[in-house]
Amino acid sequence: MRTGMIASCIVALTILVSNQISAFDFSVSPPIIRLKLHPNSAKQISLDIHNRNLKELSLIAEVMALELTQTGEAQPAQKSEWSCADWITLSQRQIRLLPGENRKLSVTITVPANIAGGRYATILFRTETPQNTENHVKLIGQMGTIIMIESFGAKNVSGLIEGFAYQKDGKAIRFGATIRNNGNIHFKADGSIVIMDEQNRIVDRLNLESGTGTVLPGGVRRFEATWSNPRKMLPGKYQAKLNLRIPGGRGILQDVQIFTL
Q1: Would 101 disulfide with which of 97, 159, 202, 256, CB 3.0-4.6 Å?
Q2: SS3 letters for 198-258?
Q3: What is the DSSP string of 162-180?
């Protein structure tokens, strides 16, 4: 799914349990909150929490910094230069829900002065529920909402290619590229690899795969593509030309690899 600069495919943090997931059958919505706010302003929003369990649930709410892995998975972090976790105040941090109960949680976001670019956080909801498992362990359920704030201050959309390489995998060629966000706002990159022969003729085009391609400031994202078209993969020398596009950035980022079949 692709909806504007912020990739709606960034999902709420998954329930982290080893088994018996139904024991933590609760939901938090919306999974993503995207806001444009002025410096030195405040905004109040609300989250809907629903206990879909047949038992009472006790939840603990916590605000943490947000990071994305190189493959685009959202994960909480203790701190980040681009965090807005300390801007966020919750009306409750301990929440008890009766079976089937819906509850609204009030969230206040206070933006400091002199802020530019993007800031990011996640509001986590955690529960510990004893389970009658063979090992008599406690399973921990965890779910969250992602907060992505864009300030009306000056934006710098900028990225650079940190690496571009290939490896032969049987009869296929696998390409990998990494891009770093060295600006102050998240962006969604996409691109392709053009395969050219020794006469500079285009032999094939490969679309890069990296989910939504969203990269937070200071973050790195990996893009991959595989060339496995036997009809076009004739013996010879080839050039793989990497083209990465950042909407709102300056031009196309490019790199080249030479390989032989």
Answers
A1: 97
A2: CCCCEEEEEECECCCCEECCCCEEEEEEEECCCCCCCCCEEEEEEEEECCCCCCEEEEEEE
A3: EEEEEEEETTEEEEEEEEE
Rounded to whole angstroms, the Cα distance separating 59 from 141 reads 9
| Nearest-angstrom CA–CA distance, 256 and 141 | 45
Four-CA torsion 31, 37, 42, 44, nearest 10 degrees:
-30
Do the beta carbons of residue 197 and residue 258 sit within 8 Å? no
φ, ψ at 35 (rounded to 5°): -135, 145
Q: How many other CB atoms are there within 10 angstroms of residue 261's CB atom?
A: 12
pTM: 0.81
Burial class of residue 126, CB neighbours in 10 A (0-12, 13-18, 19+): middle
Ordered structural domains, the chain, with CATH: 21-151 (2.60.40.10), 159-260 (2.60.40.2360)
Q: Are 63 and 109 in contact (CB under 8 A)?
A: no
DSSP three-state, residue 8:
coil
Contacts (Cβ under 8 Å, ≥6 apart) of 201: none
